[in-house]
Amino acid sequence: MERKKLLILMNGVAGTGLANTHALDIIAAFAREGCESTVYPILPSEGLTAEKILEEVDGRFDLVVCIGGDGTLNHAINGMMHMHHRPVLGYIPSGSTNDFAKGIGIPADLMAQCKTIAGHNSEHYDIGRLNDRYFNYIAAFGAFTSISYDTSQTFKNAIGHAAYMIKAIMSIPQNFRYSCHLTMTHDGVTEERDALFGCISNTTSMGGFEMPFSEHVKLSDGIFEVMIIKTPPMWIEINQILTALLSGNTNNPYIEVFQTREITFDMDEETAWTVDGEYGGSYKHAAVNVEHKAIEIMLPTPDEKEKMDAASQPIFPE
């Protein structure tokens, strides 16, 4: 029987760095499942980026296995989307929040993740594109969006999700003063807004917190969810907006939620974006569209997932 050929991209500094500790366990697990593994560490300072590695190995592997956080996965996806012979994706999440893994149904236990990747069940899911940059689950601009990439890795490693909350609280005054005037066009409609925050997403959670419209999210329907928080005239309104969002309620005059396949934003000023928790560039014109079912990923069947979760103990803590 022919062995599956795996390319393992390993980011040892993502999350708590436990990917390094369990590297041999992972390779051994794949070997037991009949896979042949080639391992590349992600070392950007030495030119070993996911994009560069994938460009050089196009057509040589059946699966690309990404071990790291959502940011590492973002780079792997950007590399895969430019490949002529696109392999199947396997993902072992080891970041601080792992929003994407939770939303798509990757099991929590490391050995279960390896078994899933070496298995036979796969599904396609939608990828987003922001101008020339691809993203797995979210592209956002405005207040608080810099927190994910401004928060130090040491800080995130130490306290996980709470690191984002603490950084957000510390930066509240300057974030609530943020406002962006924009024109957005989608589904034949053009509208102007003064926005405090905006995001286009294909996820049930962001920064470890559940999205208010999570029950409507389907990761392979060719449609993304858009949320715009309009700039309120008074700071006191901010508390009502946050209360509504945290309770899962979007019935607020300053919260706008809709679905679309593509949308463009024209901003009055260069505006910074974050994609999958990484800095995604600054643009005055931003075109976002869905690449329908562009990536195939290894996942457990629903029955397998239920059994795995019942028996699992996560190796990578949240």
Mean pLDDT: 83
Q: Structural class of the helix and strand makeup?
A: alpha+beta
Largest sheet: 9 strands, antiparallel
Measured between the Cα atoms of the first and last residue, the distance is: 38 Å
Shape: globular
Determine the fraction of residues in helical runs and give it as a percent range: 25-40%
Low-confidence segments: 149-173
* Total count of helical runs of at least 4 residues: 12
**Total beta-strand segments:** 15
Give the percentage of residues in beta strands: 35-45%
Q: Element order, helices and strands?
A: EHHEHEHEHHEEEHHHHEEEEEHEEEH
- What is the CA-atom radius of gyration, in angstroms? 20 Å
Describe this structure as you would to a colleague:
The chain is α+β, with helices and mostly antiparallel strands and 318 residues long. The chain has 12 helices and 15 strands. Strands 5, 6, 7, 8, 9, 12, 13, 14 and 15 form a 9-stranded antiparallel sheet that branches. A 4-stranded parallel sheet has the order 2-1-3-4, with helices on both faces. A two-stranded antiparallel ribbon has the order 10-11. Strand 5 (122-130) and strand 6 (133-135) form a beta hairpin. Helix 8 packs across helix 9.
